[in-house]
Amino acid sequence: MTNCSLPSHWAVSTLGEICTIIQGQSPPSNTYNFEGKGLPFLQGKAEFGSMYPKAVKWCMAPKKISEPEDVLISVRAPVGPTNLCAVQSCIGRGLAAIRTHANMLPKFILYALRASEEELRSKSTGTTFQAIRGDDLRTHPIGLPPLAEQERIVAEIEKQFTRLDAAEAALRRVEVNLKRYRASVLKAACEGKLVPTEAELAEAEGRDNEHAEQLLESILAERRAHWESQEKRRGKYKEPVLPDTPDSPELPTGWVWATVDQLILGSPQNGIYKPKSLYGDGIPILRIEDYQDFHVRTLDQLQRLRITAEETSIYGLAANHLIINRVNSPSHLGKTLLVPDHFSPAVFESNMMRVIPSRFVVSPFLAHYLRSPEGRGRLTSNAKWAVNQASINQSDVCTTPVPVPPLHEQHRIIAEVERSLSIIQQLVTAVEASLKRVERLRQSILKQAFAGQLLPQDPDDEPASLLLERIREERGADHSVTSRSPQLRLQEVKK
């Protein structure tokens, strides 16, 4: 922005030369309130919108104040995001207010800072969290065009951004619709409506109907045999929890209701808890942020943990195990991972639990059911709530009712689910690529704008050097002018 390629009638300046920078300062916490008393209190990017912030708390004793149309910039954790101040507000130390002088458009500065956000971030320092110093903000270089060209640049940016905003909104709608379609596929799969049922095929082919009751008998027999094969059995064999489904919908012919407890070997296993000092090397460990319902990081992307061979045996993962998130925010509680092939050796952390389905259960079917709106709802129906998070326990998982189709039907269902989900994922990937392209176009527009390449230059514009001289004179003649509204001062200049 500040090299020799700038148009000849532009000037090179710094943010501190053409603007006044007010660094925020947090007032005492006992002056905060949530009832709208005093000034809106803005603390950082969390309150930012696309253009203007939205306060969630107020302050009766502000120390630093931002005026309407000041440019607000986040100066710590993270550095660089910007908004325009809508109303007089108190600003905390996570923000700085940039107040333009006469002959400057606030939105020009806003977009100039957005064009150089990466450069601003590169100047940040700190170990616990990144922050930018006031001096680095004041010396940040700005390419300065005449006022008339500032107006043209802002108008052109907003015209092109309006088109990009419309494209992004359309893509976001597609994202939402694909998410709904994925949920509808899972719902149909778990209600026997995705493929012809075993009963329908048997009737059409004139043969006996395979029934899931016989399948459930095999599952329960394997469950007991698994218990009897254990060297360290504890107490008498515990019969699995039976389903409680008086209000559940009627299942297709040949299906039965079961519980997760009936369909798994042994009991659910909570993950391992170890202090952070043992992390760094050792065996890969799956953490809550490493997976979503339909995606998991690869083994080489996982953190590692030093544990014993016995602990590895207890908490080890293998293909077709299910991992269920037991503690998280309500929107992520109960998310379920079907452990993929070649995911061993690995263990899992304590905020998850593992269940091992019977070999007579098609593990992907059980996983997709628990991911479906109905399955997730039943899984988390008895969640315990705390501040900003919820939890489920092993009993909640064991008692979750599951519709069980005949074995061959499970395989057909999963084949169709995987086919549909593959198509959906291709569309999701295309939408994500388009959204990234929209963001790249925004950055390209900003880059061109502040290199003087977005619009043709007007030879009748006065050189920006004269504008810069007026700003310097204004600052030297009357510092009090900075306290007046930027809109009012701009109107004064235009008269």
Note the main attributes of this structure.
four-stranded antiparallel sheet, alpha+beta, disordered C terminus, single chain, five-stranded mixed sheet, 495 residues
What does this structure look like?
The chain is an alpha+beta fold and 495 residues long. The chain is built from 15 helices and 25 strands. It has helices at 15-18, 106-115, 117-122, 134-138, 147-190, 198-205, 212-229, 260-263, 309-315, 363-371, 373-379, 394-398, 407-449, 464-477, 486-494; strands spanning 11-14, 19-23, 32-33, 39-42, 57-59, 65-66, 71-75, 79-84, 89-91, 95-100, 141-144, 256-259, 269-270, 279-286, 291-292, 295-296, 303-305, 322-325, 327-328, 336-338, 347-348, 352-355, 384-386, 389-391, 401-404. Helix 2 crosses helix 13 (407-449), helix 5 packs across helix 10 and helix 10 crosses helix 11 (373-379). The longest helix is centred in the middle third of the chain and has 44 residues, at 147-190. Residues 480-495 have low confidence and may be disordered.
Number of helices: 15
Q: Kindly report the oligomeric state of this protein.
A: single chain
The end-to-end distance, rounded to whole angstroms, is: 30 Å
What integer value in Å does the Rg equal? Answer: 31 Å
Major sheet size, sense and barrel closure: 5 strands, mixed
| Strand order in the sheet with the most strands | 3-5-4-9-6
